[in-house]
Amino acid sequence: MDFPTLSYIDIHSHLYFKDFDSDREELIGRMKEAGIATISIGTRLETSKESITLAERYSHLYACVGLHPGDVVSMDVPEELEVLAEHEKVVAIGECGFDYFRLEGDYLDIKKSQKKVFEHQVELALKVKKPLMLHSRPSKGSQDAYHDTLDILESYYKTNSELSGNAHFFAGDMDVLKRFLNIGFSVSFTGVLTFTHDYDELVRFAPLESLHAETDAPFVAPAPHRGARNSPEYVPHVVSAIARIKEEEEEIVKNTLISNARKLFKLPF
Question: What is the Cα–Cα distance from 136 to 100, expressed in whole angstroms?
């Protein structure tokens, strides 16, 4: 790591999005000066490649490659994904899982495709010995996507305890949280912690060693930047919110979250 002090790790952002086209270089430069590292998350083969390209150019950027469930249209998984997964700057597989939020009516075929593609990525993660970056978005008023995700993970975990990963943008209930913790998975929270108390109980319950901070930039900017484009620069607001909710010193939380990310993603710094 070629900047003076590593201060924060935003474990989930999308810096290849067009939202950053006008000032991407400047933003990444400011992140370097502030000691902020991030993992750029692919959602398709193309954006996975873009994440790798960014990670190759900047020492404080890493990549995650995979197929987002919302982009799954068939059971086919490009063979090239396995090649990308072996890249030295790829630290996770995903974001992958189930997304039922916008599905209406009978979507059994879509669920089958999402399941097949997710299982392929679970097996890929085990093959390359890298963690999963999970995306689970249930249908309204339900926890169905989380339950389907966990049913598969728990089945794999029974025969391979090396399975690991993180539930990104966690919005499950307490039972779902406990199931993730029981198989050794972590959960990450975003800037929503700065403007709602909906997840305070979950943050308080989860051990600090099982938590991560993320921005999911460019989406869902934290207070005091709500309504603006989100950025990895704003991850300190998420760390502060976790410290406030857990009633812990911010420096302790910040350092623990860095340690958590280093351990899960095997970061070389």
Answer: 8
